[in-house]
Specification:
Layout lengths: L1 E5 L12 E2 L5 E2 L2 H12 L8 H4 L2 H9 L11 H5 L2 H6 L4 H4 L3 H6 L1 E5 L5 E3 H7 L3
Antiparallel strand pairs: 1-4, 2-3, 4-5
Length: 129
């Protein structure tokens, strides 16, 4: 039997990194930042990561406060303290209910029988799943 776990390159147990767009938007990683640019800044195109387009919680946050993650309106500390970042895009979110982008782009498959781990890039190259 196999199971998946999130292995985020931006966030570890000890530290977090952030993606800051040229417009001053703070995102957890480039996957989120790039999708933001495609959906809201450029004319929407059929590219990017559809999982962010279909995130009702983030849609609600952006509708209620479009500047919630803008450095022009908030400090970095205020932005990264947002509940969305703490519950969806970092632990415990990774362990309990990972964001669809994280689950799609940043997972490792673990074979419970052998303990062998393979990243999404290994799977794409070797398994053609």
């Amino acid at each position: 039997m196999k199971y998946k776990r999130i292995e985020c390159m931006q966030h570890t147990d000890e530290e977090r990194s952030w993606e800051i767009t040229p417009e001053g938007r703070v995102w957890p990683c480039c996957y989120f930042g790039n999708t933001w640019d495609i959906k809201f800044i450029d004319e929407p195109r059929p590219m990017g990561i559809p999982e962010l387009f279909d995130d009702p919680e983030l849609e609600k946050i952006m509708t209620e406060d479009p500047d919630w993650n803008s450095l022009e309106k908030h400090s970095l500390d205020e932005i990264v303290a947002h509940e969305y970042y703490w519950t969806k895009i970092w632990k415990p979110g990774f362990e309990n209910n990972p964001h669809p982008i994280c689950a799609k782009e940043c997972y490792v498959v673990v074979d419970e029988g052998t303990g062998k781990e393979r990243s999404i890039s290994d799977i794409a190259i070797y398994d053609k799943e």
